[in-house]
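USER: Note each token:
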Amino acid sequence: MSTTLLSPTTGSRIANPWVVALVVVVPTFMEILDTTIANVALRYIAGGLSAAQADADWVITAYLAANAIVLPISGWLSAHLGRRTYFLLSIAIFTLASALCGLATSLEQMILFRVIQGLAGGGLQPSSQGILLDSFPPEKQGTAMTLFGVAAVLGPIVGPTLGGWLCVDYNWRWIFMINVPIGLLALAAAYFTVEDPEYLQVERAKLRGKPLNFDVIGLGLLSLVMACWEIMLSKGQEWDWLGDPFGRVQTLMALFAVGLVLLIVREMRTANPIINFRVLRERNLTISCVIMFFAFAVMYASSIALPGMLQTLFGYDALQSGLAMSPSGVTSMAAMVLVGVLLGRRVDARWLIAAGLLVMAVASYSMALMNLQISPWQVAWPRMLLTLGLGLLFAPISLAAYKYTPFHLRGAAVGIASLLRTEGGSVGTSLAQTIEDRRDQFHLSRLGEWLGPLNNYARAYLDQARAYFLQKTGDPARSPRMGLQSLDELRQQQAASLANFDVFWLCAVVAVVLLVLVLFMKRSVAEKGEHISAE
């Protein structure tokens, strides 16, 4: 059975698509930026609020969990509230919550305001993506997705640099307060430029004539699943995952698994699901979601491992490590401009997706070959290559994902895709931290095996170190111990570097494996006036 998809009728328009695009991309960038900008500021926040460093992690966890709960139901909220109204409410509440975060006087207040900020911010990504898709004609939707990619890709890149600069040169509170003037301007601009297309107005009119039928059970199950998932990812390594003696991780994992099964069964059987899983029957959308999930996991894993390595092993501060990674924004922008041109010339999105994944694999492999004697440029160019790959695939995969999705299901599809993209970042962050800690212990043990008294190189090093410290201190009793200590510090540095390189190795393998999925995607070309038949 085939379904003919027609372009949505937007009705009267008071602004051209490019103005609308600029208006909706800015608050989206602001929201995505807030998922990473606070990562580099946790120790500053903990100090400013007199809280433990471990407890400050809840500032990130609370935001991500609240964000994840709203993302998949954003389609339902847009349909019932009106997408324009929902978008304006999201901007307003997000801006207010940002101001409250900047004014928080305790960690408890900060976590509460971050939850509110996450709930409001969750509606910005899918709403802006839907607005962009409906504002441009079919042949320009590749360009629309390129504009959205500017926010989605640059946010995680700029976040650590901007956060480090604000914390070092100003105050950590500015990472939240900076959203206030931007949010107010975005709210005013969106109020005068954004409007709902005709098909959404018709759909909302139909819904107003029906009972609300809000899926309270589905929302409860979704909240349980996403809360367990985010807490497990955030605290899993700290609690030793399945080795947790208190059973916290095991309990969260069991609740997550049971809740997810019940949620899927519930939403597939109810007539008015809060999450419409039926949209995943479309092959292109499902494959695109999987690729985007793991692509952002690769992006975030390297974004955690690389600055952490620079700060712990190279002595960079938060600002310096951010500056070393900042040139990557140039290549991602260049890639998205190039992709916009190619999609406009009817290049099949599958080729661009495959090229992006291949470039990301090469970049990750290059980072796995680093050592502790590299210059800042040798850090910058693999990172630039990585963001080049992500820029190459982001707009094409968004085009491929929604090309065969009926317009009345697009809101649900965008919500699920946005959720999986965000959760891919959470998985990448957790995975990088776990691999670093576990592989660091492994490499420490293996390197120690070769530092026995029978190793000629180790003996030669200790002799030179003992002579050096004897010359410096004049203490024959302490100098051998100082030599041993310096050798152990070298062992720890090498082990930590090898653990970080293991993260990059895994990222390269994941990117290569994702190439296989592209073979199963349908042809995706933006063509003028095309009627798409979804089988």
Observations:
- The two ends are 6 Å apart (CA to CA).
- Residues 478-518 form the longest helix (41 residues).
